[in-house]
Design goal:
The complex is a heterotrimer. Chain A is α/β, with parallel strands linked by helices. Chain A has helices spanning 2-20, 28-39, 54-63, 81-91, 104-107, 173-185, and strands at residues 70-75, 99-100, 126-130, 133-135, 140-144, 159-165, 169-170, 192-196, 201-202, 210-211, 218-224. Chain C is elongated and about 100 Å long. Chain C has two domains: 35-299, Rossmann fold; 398-473, no CATH class. The termini of chain C are far apart. Chain C has helices spanning 9-18, 22-42, 47-63, 65-78, 89-102, 114-118, 121-126, 137-145, 161-171, 181-198, 224-229, 248-262, 298-303, 317-320, 325-328, 339-349, 352-360, 367-371, 378-391, 397-410, 413-429, 443-446, 459-473; strands at 82-86, 107-110, 131-134, 201-204, 208-210, 215-220, 234-240, 244-245, 270-274, 288-294, 431-432, 435-436, 451-452. Classes of the chains: A alpha/beta, B alpha/beta, C alpha/beta. Chains B and C meet through helix 1, helix 2, helix 3, helix 4 and helix 8 of B and helix 1, helix 3, helix 18, helix 19 and helix 20 of C.
Chain lengths: 227, 274, 474
């Protein structure tokens, strides 16, 4: 019966809209054209990046302290990752353990005795994930949910390390939207697409910023120079 | 497509045929607050307009711009008042108003109440097109610069909301005041924040209005200026009234036109300027 | 805390103004928001273009609302979501509760959404057997305190650190004994973590509904939306139908505007697009996804010529910059949406008869419109609601009488000028040394300020005399 009620509401919403805007033509192609026309303005309606090179712009943004709780470094080969991770653990005096995302290219690295499969449900843990994309405009990394990417890996640990391949760093959010559109055309849209730009923060108590509200307090971005 | 889209027409209103201003007939809409409470602003306006070379007339059959009715939602009452104003003023080349909010009422809001009356809508639109706030008219249309005016001391400036936001009056009064010898500008913190007058608001919500104006005068007093200037009698009455109630006699509230016309030294409450 | 009602607005205002620390509490938040927004806009010279574009995106979608709604529904279904429609808030909460009951849910986690507040979801759960857990830190605080939100972005801004210390000590299982804000946040982190992971159903709102993909979108700084949505078996989204945009690319300009206008940050930390339930082999995620599309007055706004209000992206800039909000605070409005946006929305959600006092509590100074990221002409809309209220005769009779009497005078210039002249004579009777401290009929003015003494004659009287003298002289 709930369905019936929902159908009735659906019908009444549609007829209310129709009655309110009776003279408007609703030819799908015209509507799409109009929608695309608006997107042409994006070029003049977004902030300038501090560098034409997307990776440089991303790095500059993080180094300028504009991405909350975030640091970054570059590595030239994936094999250098465990050493970087080790250094990160040392910097924050953390035990030699973390949760490494379950993908081959990360799992098969030589982790030199660092335990790589801890339970992230408890607090104070470290997570390591492989980002699909980086976005210079916002200092973001992007993750897609999948068999190999538990979304919670990005939200439960107190410390998070994200690896972004240099070749996947985009200039603007608009560029990511185009890619998302291509993925959708192939019918491969993941359940979640997360644009993560800094750490979990709150200003809810007297306006004071505290990092690590529910998720990461510290985020370290490692750019893999794969080009 | 245009690369810079801007919603301000501050610069566009410049340079409307500023030539041959003396051949143009300018009608002064005095406003009811100036008429009743502070005629000197009306005379100062005439003086300035004449100095700028205008041929000024004051139609005798004028009353109020209709804001109290309009802002209360009484569209019919507003129309009744607007019919009069349109008839009295539509044949001038320019209509000038020594108040940002009354000018904005005629320029922006008359058309709102005539949406269903095409003939009056056109007449209201015409009146809107020829109507100007005094200080912006003097600078933007007449290219006027005051000369030979002296006033020793410092002023701070309250930008009334309608003048500032609806009509983009900001630079013009400051530009003219910079020509007054001996007068310095102490900028006001929150210069364009509402003073709490709001027409009928200040009596309907007297308690909220009081809190707002109390904060406003704190900012005004912090400037340590000798004069509080503005372009709207409503705001000035509100702020001056609060200043006096709180015992602050050290700062005098004046309309910018009064200063520019050289009337400032002899003005005080209750005295005639004419 | 006693919950204020919109119809008691006058009383609520007096109560707010009598609260000695309220102004400090409000300013702590709004001053900072105002300053940070100004900095963000100064660092974004393309802002005017962005807001024109943002406005166009919303106007386009509103113009073709039924087209995009149908497209959204089709694509959300294709993603495996279940789409529900609700004309009213009551219908929407019933749908949500029915889903929870079908799944025999005992505990639900909820990430903050204004729509949830608007449709009364919080109360609906409180009156049910199901435990509701708010996960946004501010919502968590006001849930513990039993308060309604006082701001749409910082719902707990009225609560001090001392209040939070007390609340957390009383309610958290493993509370902190420190009064440091960082430790308080950690205490909430510990308390909420187990709740995230053991919740039966996660409920969220949606900042955008992407028509071309059927995606919903959450925008947070805390990351609580993803933690609310991912662990439980079921995800329920409630969203107003005005949240539609054609595509992700169209949401981007609005994202640029939203955070800068709300908090002054350039972007929020977490922007997540949700597309139906988990895929077959996904590592985590809900198995069922319900989207409840809610009208609740929105089509009425469309029909009433209030379509510009449907652009609103709920950033809260209008209230942060409102002189009235800054003195009376959010609770005085007695409604979910305070400030200028509330003055337009509440009459459509409740009724104009109930909420017309709020539409009058505005000086029409235009600051809200000036800072609105999608150019909503709030003063114009507020004024047009006054006009509607006037036609329906909702105002107090004395107010109507005074305005009508004034209009009747003002439409007859000769009579009006006579009235002004008499007014001057009358005022002179009460003037002392240039000022009037008290005068009958003007207590609204003279209660708090003096009235300047008028000159001896009106402008018109003096002008006529002067003209006559001139012509006599000639």
């Amino acid at each position: 019966m709930n369905n019936q009620k929902s159908d009735m509401s659906r019908a009444s919403i549609f007829s209310a809209i129709k009655n309110a805007t009776p003279t408007i033509t609703k030819d799908a192609e015209t509507i799409q054209q109009e929608a695309l026309e608006i997107l042409k303005e994006s070029e003049f309606a977004r902030p300038k990046l501090s560098s034409d090179d997307a990776t440089e712009a991303l790095v500059l943004r993080i180094e300028a302290g504009l991405v909350i709780g975030t640091s970054c470094e570059k590595i030239s080969a994936l094999d250098d990752l465990p050493a970087s991770v080790n250094q990160f653990l040392g910097k924050y005096s953390l035990p030699q353990e973390l949760k490494v995302q379950g993908i081959d290219r990360l799992q098969k690295l030589n982790w030199q005795g660092i335990s790589t499969d801890i339970d992230i449900q408890k607090d104070n843990t470290v997570g390591l994930c492989w980002a699909e994309y980086g976005i210079a405009e916002t200092g973001s990394f992007v993750v897609h949910s999948s068999t190999e990417m538990p979304i919670l890996l990005n939200f439960l640990p107190l410390y998070l390390i994200a690896v972004i391949p240099k070749s996947k760093i985009l200039h603007y959010m608009d560029d990511y939207a185009l890619i998302a559109n291509e993925i959708a055309k192939k019918g491969e849209t993941p359940r979640n697409m997360c644009l993560i730009s800094g750490v979990s923060g709150t200003t809810d108590i007297e306006g004071v910023l505290v990092q690590g509200a529910h998720g990461p307090e510290i985020l370290h971005i490692i750019i893999l120079e794969d080009q | 497509m245009s690369q810079t889209i801007s919603n301000t027409d501050r610069t566009q209103s410049n340079a409307i045929d500023c030539l041959n201003i003396s051949e143009k007939k300018v009608g002064l809409f005095v406003t009811c607050l100036v008429n009743t409470m502070r005629p000197s602003i009306g005379f100062a306006s005439i003086t300035l307009l004449e100095q700028a070379g205008c041929n000024v007339e004051v139609p005798e059959l004028q009353s109020c711009c209709g804001q109290p009715a309009f802002n209360s939602g009484d569209d019919e009452g507003t129309r009744q008042i607007a019919y009069q104003t349109i008839k009295q003023f539509e044949n001038f080349d320019y209509v000038v108003v020594p108040s940002g909010s009354c000018a904005a009422m005629i320029k922006k809001n008359f058309v709102e109440v005539f949406k269903d009356q095409p003939e009056w809508l056109a007449r209201a639109q015409h009146l809107a097109d020829i109507t100007h706030e005094l200080l912006s008219f003097l600078v933007d249309v007449c290219n006027f610069e005051p000369t030979g005016i002296e006033l020793e001391g410092s002023y701070t400036y309250h930008d009334s909301c309608s003048g500032y936001r609806s009509l983009h009056v900001y630079e013009q009064p400051r530009k003219m005041l910079s020509k007054v010898k001996g007068l310095e500008h102490n900028p006001l913190n929150g210069h364009a924040e509402c003073c709490g007058f709001g027409g009928t608001f200040c009596v309907k919500y007297s308690n909220i209005s009081n809190e707002i104006v109390a904060e406003k005068i704190e900012n005004v007093l912090a400037t340590e200026a000798d004069y509080l200037l503005g372009g709207d009698m409503g705001c000035l009455m509100n702020m001056a009234g609060k200043l006096n109630r709180e015992g602050h006699k050290e700062i005098k509230a004046l309309h910018t036109a009064e200063v520019l016309a050289g009337l400032a030294p002899q003005l005080s409450g209750g005295k005639d300027a004419s | 805390m006693q919950v204020n009602k919109p119809e008691d607005f006058y009383k609520n205002v007096s109560k707010a103004l009598a609260q000695p620390d309220l102004k400090m509490i409000i300013r702590r938040t709004t001053d900072k928001a105002e300053k940070k927004r100004a900095e963000a806009i100064a660092n974004f010279p393309e802002f005017e273009n962005a807001r024109m574009q943002g406005q166009k995106v919303k106007d386009h979608t509103i113009k073709y609302m039924d087209h995009y709604l149908a497209e959204f529904e089709k694509n959300a279904l294709a993603q495996g979501a279940i789409v529900h429609w609700a004309s009213t808030g009551e219908e929407a909460t019933k749908i949500v509760l029915d889903i929870c009951r079908q799944h025999k849910a005992k505990k639900v986690t909820r990430s903050k959404s204004m729509l949830g507040e608007e449709i009364g979801l919080t109360h609906a759960f409180d009156n049910s057997e199901i435990e509701r857990i708010e996960t946004d830190l501010a919502e968590h605080i006001i849930q513990l305190a039993g308060d309604p939100p006082s701001h749409i972005v910082w719902p707990a801004m009225h609560r001090s650190r001392e209040d939070v210390v007390k609340l957390f000590r009383e309610f958290h299982l493993d509370p902190t004994y420190s009064e440091e804000i960082t430790d308080l946040v950690r205490s909430a982190r510990r308390d909420l973590r187990t709740k995230f992971l053991t919740s039966d159903i996660g409920i969220s709102g949606s900042n955008f509904l992407l028509a071309d993909s059927g995606s919903t979108c959450t925008v947070t700084n805390e990351g609580n939306a993803e933690l609310t949505i991912t662990p439980p078996k079921v995800h329920i989204v409630t969203a107003g139908i005005e949240k539609l945009v054609p595509s992700m690319a169209h949401a981007v300009p609005l994202l640029r505007l939203l955070t800068r206008s709300a908090t002054g940050a350039e972007i929020t930390q977490y922007i997540t697009f949700h597309n139906g339930p988990k895929r077959a082999n996904d590592a985590d995620g809900p198995e069922e996804c319900h989207i409840v599309l809610v009208d609740n007055g929105r089509t009425k706004m469309l029909a009433d010529g209030m379509e510009e209000m449907l652009r609103c992206i709920r950033c809260g800039a209008c209230m942060n910059h409102c002189v009235v909000y800054k003195h009376i605070g959010g609770h005085a409005y007695g409604s979910v949406y305070p400030g200028p946006m509330g003055s337009v929305l509440t009459p459509h959600l409740d009724s104009l008869e109930v909420a017309n006092k709020q539409t009058h509590a505005c000086t029409l100074n235009g600051r809200c419109e000036e800072v609105c990221p999608v150019n909503i002409p709030l003063p114009k809309l507020i004024r047009s609601l006054r006009a509607r209220s006037w036609q329906k005769k909702y105002e107090p009779l004395t107010n109507r009488f005074i305005v009508q009497a004034f209009a009747a005078l003002a439409k007859r210039p000769r009579v009006f000028q006579l009235f002004c002249s008499c007014g001057v004579v009358f005022m002179k009777l009460f003037s002392r040394q240039g000022w009037i401290k008290y005068m009958p009929l003007t207590s609204g003015w003279t209660r708090n300020r003096d009235l300047i003494e008028p000159e001896s004659k009106t402008f018109m009287q003096q002008y006529r005399k002067m003209k006559k003298a001139k012509s006599d002289g000639v």
